[in-house]
Design goal:
heterodimer; A: Spore Coat Polysaccharide Biosynthesis Protein SpsA, Chain A; 7 strands; B: mainly alpha; elongated
Amino acid sequence: MNNSRVLIVIPAYNESDNIGQVLAEIKKNTPKFDILVINDCSTDNTAEIVQKAGINCITNVFNMRYAWAVQTGLKYAQKHNYDYAILMDADGQHIASETKKLFEQAINTNSDIIIGSRYLKDLGYPCPLFRKIGTKFFSIMIRLFTKHKITDPLSGFQCLNKAVIDYYAQCGNYPEYPDANLIIEMLLKGYKITEIPTKMRVRENGVSMHSGILRPIKYMITQFYTCIVILVKYAGKKKGKT
Amino acid sequence: MNNIFFIIISLITIIYIFYSIRKNKLDITSSFIWIVFCIILLVLSIWPTSLDWFANLLGITYPPTLFLTIAIVVLFIMIFIQSKKIEDLRKKVIDLGQELSVLKNEHPPKTAPKKSSSSKKQ
């Protein structure tokens, strides 16, 4: 590993059942990486657990939801001049030991974004049917419009380099759901995105932000609409990291 | 009688808009479209036949439809402008919130030292 400064950004909302275990796992597996938890105004004792674990914790002044909590972390990373930021979920879905793989891949391939994919290899991730359909749909959409193969566009397990940190931190239009739409945008802007197969677990405790019936429908519609708008926005534009 | 009612309504609204501007409760730029809307209403109230004439000019057989159409178009434009302004404010609020959250993390507020019993005034 080189001397790059790496920050693991973990947005958390009411994750008191999982966050302790997640942090312990990260500290054990990647002691050289800095950790930052963004407590998005949790109503449980998430912040206390993080502070007791001796981990740096930013508590948002109001509930901003997932995307903007991530952006808070990226603003911190930009301000403190980190070379890489690794985005991880607080629900225990992402395995700490896999962060090393993401980082090493970012160094070796000189990619701007490394995505940890559940579907690049069959690593036994039990995917619910609705998610499978959504993933496949957006994967085809990305391939169709950008000619890039992204097997897991809904993965939040990513490693971002400095250029991407700066872009996301200052991005005035950081989307509410930063998934396929953001991947399309970054590919159209000329950023290099690479996927690597990573193991993931299923959430054991707590409630997912995509749970229920209406939320996944809202997610799919919003995601599809924003993808179309981005394609229209960049139609005819030359690729360039601007 | 109807005309007098609408003239009064228009005048009261215009006066209230100017009063709000004087009290800094309404921005001058934002007040423009309301003033225009009130003036149109005032003109139509004073000369109701002008609506018939204008409807005839556009080939509309039932003149009140013209008034409703204009009102709906104006309201749509206003909602669109408001929607853009709300989005702009939302971005600014989130940006401010994020900056404040990071700053609070870097400079945690100092807790006031607890007063010991010995320091109490006798």
